[in-house]
Write a sequence for this structure.
């Protein structure tokens, strides 16, 4: 999938956020000297092709009371890791769920799932639920609690290319 | 970014419904906020005021297009480093200075610094990770995603 210079300008102009005005796409079009209809159709094309995953809000879990977040990591049998990963990813206390390569010997874990709760105890209870789902297919697990957000921005495009 | 919970009454039911609904997507139309307002039983002006407030108080961190680096020929990669405690702040400053570092968390583990690199070309991941290794003299372990299971997280409404 390739995008052209105008697509790129649209992404660059909106990556800090859509303007909070009644006609946000017209506003963006005005910034770039385009018509609103062109901005809308280009964004639609980029959504269809997967360049833009979606236009959405990112909630701040901490502000919303989900102050206990843990990155749970699991060593799951490769033969069933896709099937079980999909089950874990569908749990509504899980925000992100991925298969990743192990880094043996010190890192045996291949399934990563972010668990959220209002307390550490609640996160540990969620972890127990995941243990039950994975059963014998899981050889070991750990959970890494975050103590500080050091940086958080969206993806930033470099200009031009 | 705000890390402390908001007061329990900071958000009302409509705010929570708005956050949940807008995690799934936002209309591509001439008056998108009016459409969202209609779905929530309120109006355009109210939705705009609520979103501005949610951003102001830190209940949401972003509102806009989420770009898939991979679909653009780029790449994301989760990375981890084992940073000695006494060097933590210095290393954090060096890592965060790279614009490709999209977010970075301190975690309780031997591998205590976890960050995501987002680059617009796949070769960028190793270039930046190698540069961070050279700058910090600490190995950057790389955990690219092999498969993603999407993803929902709901605020209790």
């Amino acid at each position: 999938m390739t995008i052209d210079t105008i697509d790129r300008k649209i992404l660059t102009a909106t990556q800090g956020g859509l303007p909070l005005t009644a006609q946000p796409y017209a506003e963006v079009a005005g910034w770039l000297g385009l018509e609103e209809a062109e901005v809308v159709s280009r964004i639609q094309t980029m959504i269809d092709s997967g360049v833009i995953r979606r236009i959405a809000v990112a909630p701040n879990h901490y502000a919303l009371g989900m102050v206990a977040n843990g990155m749970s990591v699991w060593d799951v049998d490769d033969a069933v890791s896709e099937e079980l990963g999909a089950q874990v990813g569908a749990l509504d206390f899980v925000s992100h769920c991925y298969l990743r390569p192990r880094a043996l010997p010190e890192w045996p874990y291949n399934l990563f799932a972010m668990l959220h709760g209002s307390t550490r105890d609640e996160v540990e209870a969620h972890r127990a639920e995941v243990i039950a789902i994975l059963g014998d297919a899981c050889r070991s697990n750990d959970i890494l609690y975050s103590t500080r957000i050091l940086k958080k921005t969206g993806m930033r495009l470099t200009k031009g290319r | 970014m705000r890390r402390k919970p908001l007061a329990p009454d900071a958000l009302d039911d409509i705010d929570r419904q708005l956050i949940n609904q807008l995690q799934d997507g936002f209309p591509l139309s001439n008056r998108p906020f009016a459409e969202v307002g209609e779905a929530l039983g309120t109006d355009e002006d109210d939705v705009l005021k609520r979103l501005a407030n949610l951003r102001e108080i830190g209940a949401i961190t972003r509102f806009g297009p989420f770009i898939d680096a991979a679909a653009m020929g780029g790449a994301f990669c989760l990375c981890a480093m084992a940073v000695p405690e006494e060097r933590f702040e210095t290393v954090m400053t060096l890592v965060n200075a790279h614009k490709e570092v999209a977010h970075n968390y301190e975690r309780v583990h031997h591998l205590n610094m976890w960050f995501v690199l987002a680059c617009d070309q796949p070769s960028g991941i190793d270039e930046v990770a190698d540069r961070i290794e050279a700058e910090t003299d600490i190995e950057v372990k790389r955990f690219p995603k092999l498969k993603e299971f999407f993803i929902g997280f709901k605020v209790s409404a």
